[in-house]
Structure formats: C-alpha cells, structure tokens
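Annotated sample (chain length 209).
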Amino acid sequence: MRLVLASQSPARLTLLRNAGIDPSVVVSGVDEDAVAAALTDPSPEELVSALAAAKAEAVFETVAGTHADSVIVACDSMLSIGGEMVGKPGTPEVARRRWADMAGRSGRLLTGHALIRIDGGERVKEAAGTRTTIVHFGRPSEAEIEVYLATGEPLQVAGSFTLDALGGWFVEGIEGDPSSVIGLSLPLVRRLLDEVGVSVVDLWRPSTS
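Output written by the structure step:
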C-alpha cells in the first residue's frame, strides 16, 4: 500500500514525512481557476472540496496503471476573510494588499480533502471531507511585511501566510486543527483513510511502526 500525494506543496510533504509517511508525489496540473469558474455560486466548503476532488481525479488518471495498490490524497486550501475566498497571491503586490487587509483580523482557513483508493489498478472506494480552522492574524509592521514578501514564501501559499514557517511569526493564534492550516488535516485524513479501508499505521515507514 502506497500513499500518493496529489500536491507539489513542500509543507504537505514535510507534514506527512514528519508523521511517518513517505508518499509518492504526483502533481495534478489541474487548472484551479477553470474548476472554480465551472461552479455556480459555491459555498467556501464546496469550492475547496471541488478543487480537491478535481486534483484527485487527475492524478488517478495518471497513476492507476503504475500504483496498483495505493490511496490518492488530494487537498486544496483557501482563506475566507471579509466575505472573500483567497488562494495563492502569486505576486508581491497581491500579497501586500492581502496582508494590509488581514492584519489584526481573523479568517477561516478551509482545506478540502479527497481520497481515492486504488486496488488492482481499479478505483474501489472514495472519501472526502473539509476542515475549517479559525486563524487570528497579528499586526506586522510595513517593514516586516516587506521583508516577508522578499523571501517569496507568501506568494505561493493560500492566504499569503504559513503557520509552520516564517509566516508563523505573524499569526496570533488559531482555533482548530494546526495541520489543516499547514495544508493537510492529519486527523481528518486518518478518518477518511479508515472510510476507504486503509489504516494509517499501515502507511507508516517500517522504522516508525
């Protein structure tokens, strides 16, 4: 049994490795904007769920013939704040505006999860779920934000911040699951694995279990 991580996120990969799993990494290449545009007035939960499902489906088409006994785990994270859903900013200008808006406020970090169990090269089971965590942001100075932007870290992460790296200095606290803020909820994935007939301990490295 092999876990296939349908993500290029270094944070998700590190999280899984620290939790005893060395996954295969297969990037989905999904056009997230196109998936979102095809939805009609989705709720925040529906949006991240649809994006995660699209990523899992794309990776299934890629690995079904090469990972005959595996489980695909796909995720998508977005920040809901001020009535807006925001993903990766992409540019310093967008990230700067977002931090000006987020400072001193609280938002909901949503992470959608989609799993596909493959047995004998065939899809046999699926499971999905969403985890929401409240994030309370600090008030970094303009100078601190400029240095943070210059590192490049906030440009490629949902909400323009991280919890487990440099951005953690600017987070006052959270209410909920820290691993979900990092990008993959360990307790939720454990339950979803159980739904598709896989025990998380069977995925641990031999030296761990």
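Annotation: Strands lie at 2-5, 24-25, 69-81, 84-86, 106-119, 122-137, 171-175.
Annotation: The helical segments are 10-18, 32-37, 44-63, 92-102, 142-151, 178-182, 186-195.
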